[in-house]
Amino acid sequence: MTTIPVVTLFLAFFASALISPFLPFTLMWRTACISAGAFLAAHLLEQPVHWEDQNVGHALGLAMLLMFSSVVLVALTVRFLIVVSKGPLTQEVLGTGQYSDGRGWIDLINMVLWGGIAGILLVIGLARLLAGVPGGQTLDIGIALAGVAVVVFAAVRCSKKIAVPLGSLGIAVSVLSFIGSGQADRIMEGAETFAAGRPWCLVTPTTEAQEPAFSTLGFFSIPKGRSRAHLVVLVRDGDQLLKGHWSIRQQKIFEGAYGPVPTCNPETDYAATLAGGQIERERLAVGPHSYIVPPELEPVADIASLSVRSTMLTERKQTYPEMSERIKIDFAAPDLFVPRDAKPLTDIPFHSEIDPAELTKGKSLEFSGTELSTGRAVVLE
Fold it and tell me: What is the domain extent for residue 13?
């Protein structure tokens, strides 16, 4: 969603920053404003780099950017001090007011750019303010239409100096909101692609109700987090649960997820279950197992562990000083033992086909395979 605009803005930043110290003063400060605006807009739109991915290459890139910016800033400061030493900064020196002839085009660029930046900041603020509000696509489209209304108002009722930045603000809000209105569908399509036919489910690590409703997957509605991923998709792969996270800026799912990730119950038809509001929130997948835990036990679960409140300690805590108020199960997926003579699950006979006489002689029936609804590897005896 943002790769091409971000690259374009960074190129504009480098180009304008490089030439600005060599321009006449009336153009220098205007070009410097364009450079600063392009950098800020690119920073707001780019995909953030998590600290675990900040390797040597990332550090070198930041060092080169800092060095380049410092050189340009020093050159601009020297030019500014030279001009100030010759006299006050009048309209004639700055090239504003009646002395702005021939420079209106660059002023227009600055008004459009900084109005757009204000629109991006407004969208980010609204996205954090409305996080978790069940509005979904309706909320996204409503805000987009509000942005269009701002553009119309600016064009009809405002002077040029106000209409241009205000209209740019409205355009930024409406464009980002209209693009974001398709986020819920992109999440469903991206999760199914990431799962590749395997069972999957969604969790929101930053909320108390950690499985989202479909109405909270909108651009503005989706819960936001800083140290944790906004939305995580868990995929059942045999005895393991694989993780992926949703990027709001890139509008796609990336492999892996940072921070503690709660668990959910992967299903092959999870999209339909979520859209129908039929999520079993008491069912939790931990490793290859699936637990049903009543909410009164206050379960806390991730993909490798499950803890519940210990109700049996409420009366006689002093009798069990070595125990805490919670009981925790840590799970490490063992290798599943499959008997050599186990038959596939598809060969499980109907009860009328089973010979009780054979079972009473000590013979057992063993079957192994993958359970279609959950994707778990199972052995039945």
Answer: 3-180
- At residue 345, what is the residue type? L
Let me know whether 274 and 174 are in one domain: no
Q: Rounded CA gap, 49 and 51, in Å?
A: 6
pLDDT at position 166 over 90: yes
Together in a domain, 202 and 166: no
Would you tell me the crossing angle of helices 3-19 and 25-45 to the nearest 10 degrees? 160
Query: What residues contact 306, with CB distance under 8 A and at least 6 apart?
Result: 284, 286, 291, 293, 299, 300, 328, 329, 331
Q: How many CB atoms lie within 10 A of CB 24?
A: 8
Q: Examine the domain organization and report whether 173 and 204 are in the same domain.
A: no
Token pair belonging to 209: 């109700």
pLDDT at 55: 67
Do the Cβ atoms of 172 and 178 come closer than 8 Å? no
For the stretch 114-139, pLDDT in tens is 999 999 999 999 999 998 888 889 99
pTM: 0.76
CA distance 35 to 53: 28
Chain centre distance of CA 39: 22
3 state SS of 116: helix
Q: Which residues contact 8 (CB under 8 A, 6 or more apart)?
A: none
Give the range among 1-10, 12-21, 32-41, 360-369 with minimum mean pLDDT: 360-369
